[in-house]
Amino acid sequence: MKLGGTVRICAPHTLSSPVRHALDMLIRDMNTVLGHEPLTGNDPGAADIIIRYAEEEDNCEARPEAFVLRFRADGNRVWLTVAASDDLGLVYGILHISRAYLGIQPFWFWADQTVPARSFVEVPCEDYEAPAPKVRFRGWFVNDEVCLIGWKEPYPPSREVWLPVFEALLRSGGNMVIPGTDLPKTGVHLALAAEMGLWITHHHAEPLGAEMFLRAYPGKRASYKDEPELFERLWREAIEKQRYHKVLWVLSFRGQGDKPFWENDPSFDTPEKRGAMISRVIRRQYDMIAEKVEKPVCCVALYGEISELYKGGHIDLPPDVIQIWADNGYGKMVSRRHGNLNLRIPALPDNRVSGKHGIYYHVTFHDLQASNHLTMFQGPAGFLRQELQSAFDAGATEYLLVNSGNIRPHVYTLDLVQTMWNEGGLDPDKHLRQFVESYYGGHHEEIAELYRSYADASIPYGPHTDDLAGEEFYHHPARRIIGHWLQGKMGSPDEGLFWATGKLPFLEQVRWFEERCAAGQKAWADWLTHCEKLMDRLAEDDKRRVADHLRFHGVLHQSGAEGFMWLCRSFAAYCGQLYPQAFVLASQSMWAYSRGLQALRDAEHGKWERFYSADWLTNIESTVSNVDTLRRFLRMHGDSPDFFLWYKEYLMPETEKYIYLENTHRNPLSDDELAARLKDCFKSG
After folding, report:
1. CA-closest candidate to residue 649, choices 677, 630, 611
2. Which region holds residue 27: left if phi is over 0, alpha if psi is between -120 and 50, else beta?
3. Does the model's pTM come out above 0.90?
4. What pLDDT is recorded for position 214?
5. DSSP label of 110
6. 139: which of 176, 405, 618, 639 fits an S-S bond (Cβ 3.0–4.6 Å)?
7. Closest Cα to residue 203, out of 238, 165, 158?
8. Distances in Å between the alpha carbon of 53 and those of 58, 67, 470, 600?
């Protein structure tokens, strides 16, 4: 069968909004590839493609979201029928045409896929029955989405921002979403997600999708023990608002600001008391939903401290809820680190735990410690595959929610996970080869090797396989060290760094980071050298993609590791009272960190203008500013008050030092110029 020219599509007489969105995507894709916009109508006798709900003759599996493709011929006419059991089945069937026959990949928008124009496409007339995905409910938590927030002017983000997010999720076979983190309820995100056919689910810190207690009742004490009626009023309002939508109701009870509730109510001072309160709240939420919603689907997020309490036998759950287990933010299915406490309790069901199970999994994370927010997941693909496979083997196949962050920096790992949730497994090398061939025009093996070796350059900071540094490792600890230093607390360790260094004196803590960053910046520099050598040989489109999806990440790592290394060395020089040298080293730190800031700007081209403008979490700009403050402080140690003394001591010619007139030297060198010249002086000396 050949599709070319003006393709004729027969669609259902009355289109649901999800099918309408999918049909619009197919029309756009055909226009892009074939150069003609298809004609849509309701006459199946003249159509090349017929889209309809399944009939008995289609032999379409009677499961949610099932679809089939059937080819039929009558004389010289050949046509394709897409039949499905429900709206989402039709959506997936329509998008299957785009991917299988037109070559439009799930992340075409986010990876800037080059789509070649063709006069026609040949479609093999082979019937197709969509296999059941491995996971029933599968989707994204669009979390810590500051890049999406800052990308365009309106707040909360508009349809323009959310449409490509939800489209990529649907093209990946996803069917559920948490669209953003604590966004105003007036935003379009929830309504648009439902409009496109997605199930809505909730953040574990916002049970039932209800408004946060302290936002609704400022000044009140956020205690369910003291204010049950006020909490339940918010839950009831959330149920009424969502009762007619497709919702995966998340039952949970955490404190305000996504932390254990007992931090605001210290009377709950034992695991038994804490577990009893959480069990009571979850049962009340469950009963309230059952009063209003027929056959609700409910989940319990066994996240953080709730996982630990459940494992300890302190939480009692209703029997039919989906139990959601969570990784530690670094891809390992163990409990997450809380500050310096890292219990690493296994976070998967065992054969003693009955019921339905699923997982919440991070390919990106923000934790003020060592996570990856702007950069790709730092571990190897084989590690991700093994952790997800272990979860599936343990029976966690009912639900897979992936923390997707801001999408664009995480395309490769999101594609890997969607393969897992659809197929139940993968060969990492085969998947990588297919991924690279889908998004890059040439030099496939060399580009694949950059993806493959990315994890090898990551800095190991602990004894576990998942203890690999994301880019936040170079920023949050660095700013802590600067603050501790400038506040004059150097005589005692910074307890906020014990999670990494252990209980060491402050000087040893700084040295610990210096050693790891010195090795890390070298490894990342070597990786970048390979990347940039390859870029010189690439066609322009591939060169841009490699710059955005590979080199960008390497620069953030290398510049961050180098900046942190120079910062630590500046502290050592300061401790030795080598103040001009400390000033130069701090300047080198700032210059290195500034390269990371420039990488953000370089990635903001075309439709991506402003994309990283709201880097408020890793916050490279804040790190640059902090180091600049530090070097100003250091310049006061010997160059103040005239800021001419170091120039005179180290840079002024000997013939001038003793005869210059004070009133002819009134323009001190800037910090950058003085640091650059002193650097050369100390190097030559």
Report:
1. 677
2. alpha
3. yes
4. 87
5. T
6. 176
7. 238
8. 9, 9, 46, 46
